[in-house]
Amino acid sequence: MERNKDKYYTSLYELAAAINSARAPEFILQSLVEGVAKAMGAKGCSLMLLSPDRKTLLHTAVYGLSDWYVKKGPVSTDKSISEALKGKAVAILDATQDNRIQYRDQAKKEGIASILSVPMTLREEIIGVIRVYTSEAYQFTTDDIYFVGAVANLGAIALENARLYEAVKKTTRISDRVCWDGVLLWVTNG
Questions:
Q1: 26: nearest Cα among 165, 129, 158
Q2: What is the Cα–Cα distance from 22 to 125, expressed in whole angstroms?
Q3: CA distance 15 to 17
Q4: 59-105 pLDDT, tens per residue?
């Protein structure tokens, strides 16, 4: 895996531009995981959101992993790098041996050596994680963790923007003028 901070800066710029675009949330989230994997030279990356009951993580966007691996079974919040859901970035050097990994045998079959799991937080509430997967043992650095953390924050903002956009669209059906959080907006009905 290649370490290059310049790639991180370029990738953050491109990902922020994607979030600022008028594209569908699915496209934006897919861009985030692909951008992280490519910038880090990793095998893959996934963005997993917490289920409504907060007991499982649901693969929402994935890059570089097989369908078989993604569909291996439910990812339990209690059995799969649970420290990340408490707000702490967690780096696993050997995913095939570490007890914090729920599906160690499947990780080995998929060719995953190391995993970095970083929480996604929206307004101080953890809503999911971004995970980076390497094919060779890799000691994640502070720069790696900060980069993925920044992307996780951008992903949370993208999800919130999508939710707010949908709320505004629904409100515009009622009126041309919308007051949102004390800000008067003029919206054209279309």
A1: 158
A2: 26
A3: 5
A4: 899 999 999 999 998 898 888 888 899 999 999 999 999 999 999 99
